[in-house]
Amino acid sequence: MSPKLVACLTAALTTWAACGSTPEVDPPGTGDFEGLPTGTEQWKRVCATGHGDAITAAFCAGDEPPAITSLAELQALVGLDASNRATTRAMMTGVSTGVGVRTITPLNPRAILVGPPPTGVPAPAFTALAFARGEPLVEMIARDPGTGTLHFFALRFHPACEATAAGCNFADLLTPSIESDWTRYTIYDEETIKNTPLDCLSCHQTDGPGTPKILRMQELRVPWNHWFASNFLNQREHDFRVAHAASYGGIAQFGQLESPAELELFLRDNGFSPQPNEYDSGLINVELRQTGTSAAWQEIYDRAVAGLAIPPPYHDVDPTDPAKVGSMIDTYRQVVDGTLARDLLPDIRDTLLDAALPAMSIRPAPGLDGRGILVHMCARCHNSRLDQTQSRARFNVETLDALDRGEKDLAIMRLQLPDGDPRKMPPPRFHTLSAAERDLAIQALAQ
Ligand code: HEC
Ligand code: HEC
Fold first, then answer.
1. DSSP letter string, 36-86
2. Contact indicator for 289, 361 with CB cutoff of 8 Å
3. How far is the CA of 259 from the centre of ligand 2 (A)?
4. Omega prior to 116 cis, within 30 of 0
5. I want to staple 55 with a disulfide (CB 3.0 to 4.6 A). Which of 142, 323, 341, 432 is the partner?
6. Ligand 1 atom nearest residue 112's Cα
7. Which residue's CA is the nearest one to ligand 2's atom 24?
8. What pTM does this model have?
9. Residue 446 burial (CB < 10 Å; 0-12/13-18/19+)?
């Protein structure tokens, strides 16, 4: 019997940790950068933009890319520090409709740092940084004081585990380990990643080239349903605190976690209110309490199903299964405390209720026909508004009838690729179709 199996069986006596789980994993999402330049070559592209924002300035101050081996060093480089209220505000959300829609949960939230803090008037220059454990990715935005334009950056870092023969396990990716000991990184500008599923502008500039780029916070107003709000101690925040006694995402102490009101003010002051397709937490909660359904939520959801807006957050406050969350917390604590082998940690993000997936637009809305499935699952990235010079624009669900046979056949082929293939459509990071849903979509494309 292998030592790993022995450890696994021993552990199974005291926890539910499944021996069948094989926690050696490729960090998810790494396929998104396939074929793109890396390292110094890509750094030169960022610096060649000549943009005047603080992130470009910080990265391009020297003759070579700055050395960065941890999230803390990166935050320091771009001037954000959760322990310093004079420069920074730090927030967390347990549900995201950004690139971590499937992987951000109350146990593995998205930490957002912004600065300078809101003062009631627009800041000529500002910086925002978002990070969640599990993915070797940091997302950043900075406003160029000269032009007033926002610039978007994705930093792909390489955690130490990637260079080892054993590869990464979930403990490497989901505990504090992922925040330090980076062996290298590449900084990407928004142009370079525009024709990938990560395309920042597909959500932060939904009306396409030449229209304003925006910061996003769909739950802009009180009670910010899915955000951690230290002033409303709720079950999600409680779960998070039980699991993570120490720091998360550069936010070292709970005293450093601000109310989401601070991000709301930051967005309002800087001109990003109203939000498109805003999710009105207070109204949705009242409607759900009174009738069990929410017309306000249904309206913004229907717009996403019709391909007119990015998906709204889940209607209810919690899309996770409490039983799954409970056992994940226990196992996580044991691994962090050293009483359970690290390679036995399961994917603690795997807690979403199956029933919540259509409402989160991860799966198509129930009852759609093939065409409806294509619109709900493809239109955010394949429409007439986004940059039409990208190869992706050749497949446009808004003009399905006008597409030639070759393009439709290409779509059919890409729908049938396995999940691990970076060309798989829709990108598994955002969407999953059942076999029956995929067949309906293929039938619509076969016409
Ligand atoms: C699928 C839509 C989507 C994509 C793609 C996307 N974002 Fe966002 N982003 C959001 C939403 C929605 C929020 C608000 C918080 C949340 O829901 O997680 C957000 C928040 C942010 C924030 C925090 C500041 C703010 O606007 O609230 C940063 C920083 C950010 N995104 C950077 C990026 C970068 C960089 C990229 C590209 C690499 C990107 N985003 C791609 C939807 C998206
Ligand atoms: C999150 C954004 C996103 C979503 C959602 C998405 N795609 Fe894509 N798709 C892309 C990107 C980016 C490319 C270009 C890069 C590439 O070819 O992989 C692309 C390329 C394609 C292409 C190749 C176009 C060409 O002529 O080169 C087809 C076909 C396609 N997607 C079909 C689909 C279908 C069908 C769906 C929905 C079931 C879908 N996509 C959903 C991002 C997306």
1. S--HHHHHHHHHHT---SHHHHHHTSSSSPPP--SHHHHHHHTT--TT-TT
2. no
3. 37
4. yes
5. 142
6. 23
7. 392
8. 0.94
9. exposed
Q: What is the mean pLDDT of residues 281-296?
A: 97
**Cα 290 to Cα 343: distance, rounded to the nearest angstrom:** 46
Distance from the alpha carbon of residue 201 to the mean position of ligand 1, in angstroms = 9
Which residue, 389, 364, 384, 387, is CA-closest to 439?
364
Please name which of 43, 66, 71 lies closest in space to residue 189, comparing C-alpha atoms.
43
> What gap in Å lies between CA 220 and CA 262, rounded to an integer?
10
Backbone angles phi, psi at 15, to 5 degrees: -135, 175
Q: Map 328-392 to HEC letters.
A: HHHHHHHHHHCCCCHHHCCCCCCCECHHHCCCCCCCCCCCCCHHHHHHHHHCCCCCCCCCCCCHH
Q: Note the ligand closest to the C-alpha atom of 386.
A: 2
Q: What is the pLDDT of residue 25?
A: 52
- Residues with a CB atom less than 6 Å from ligand 2: 195-197, 199, 374, 377-378, 380-382, 391-392, 394-395, 407, 410-411, 414-415, 423, 425-427, 430-431, 441
Shortest-distance ligand to the CA of residue 32: 2
Residue 201 φ/ψ, nearest 5 degrees: -70, -20
Q: How confident is the model at residue 14 (pLDDT cuts 50, 70, 90)?
A: very low
Alpha-carbon span 258 to 264, nearest angstrom = 11
The proportion of the chain whose per-residue pLDDT surpasses 90, expressed as a percent, equals 85
Q: Dump pLDDT digits (tens) for 72-86.
A: 999 999 999 999 999
Return the DSSP state at 205: S
Question: What are the two backbone dihedrals, phi and then psi, of residue 181, each rounded to the nearest 5 degrees?
Answer: 60, 35
User: CA-CA distance, 350 to 325, in Å (whole number)?
Assistant: 9
Token pair belonging to 160? 């130490």
Q: Is the pLDDT of residue 233 over 70?
A: no
Both tokens of 239, joined, read: 């779960």
**Nearest ligand by distance to the CA of 196:** 2
Break the chain into its structural domains and give their ranges: 23-269, 293-320+352-446
Each residue's pLDDT tens digit, 37-53: 999 999 999 999 999 99
Instruction: Give 51's contacts (C-beta < 8 A, 6+ positions apart).
Output: 144, 151
Q: Reading across the β-sheet that carries 110-115, which strands appear in turn?
A: 89-93, 110-115, 127-131, 137-143, 150-159, 182-189
Phi, psi of 51 (to 5 degrees): -65, 150
By the 8 A CB rule, do 186 and 40 touch? no
